[in-house]
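Q: I'm writing up a methods section and want to include an example of the input and output format. Could you take the sequence below and give the corresponding predicted structure tokens, formatted cleanly so I can copy it straight into the document?
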Amino acid sequence: VGELRFVCQWLRNSASRVTLYAADVDPMTGRPSQEPSEAALARQIVADIAGGPAGQSELMARAATAMTVPGEMHIAVLQSEDGGEEWHIIGSRSVKHDHATGTVTITMDDGTDRTLDPNNESIFRVHNPHPERPHEADSPVRAALPIYWFTRIIQATA
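A: Here is the clean output for your methods example:
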């Protein structure tokens, strides 16, 4: 569906322009301030996310697509070879949890599997909860599926 693809790409492009910054929380409103925090450590932590502005741009773009299409993603913070951090958006189908051993294995973008080191790496799920089944993800694309299937049926019978 071309219109849906256009919207998803527009959201991706818009999200890639987001600037991350550390903000203090206003004790009166509970909302983040609109000005960056003066706390040097907080500013450095945010500056290091995904390797800086270029990596943050790609991270936000991929997050927008994940939250729009499947409605969920996993964010993996992995240790790089140089001892730093790498941030990755991982699709839910690419995360495997072995309950017997407690290990989590993810399939990376290049197709290789990586077992997470629980002492130095982390992964967490971000999702839009379905209104009736909150453990399931919901997304704007899910609402378009009946139209998609109806269109396919019409095309197949024409």
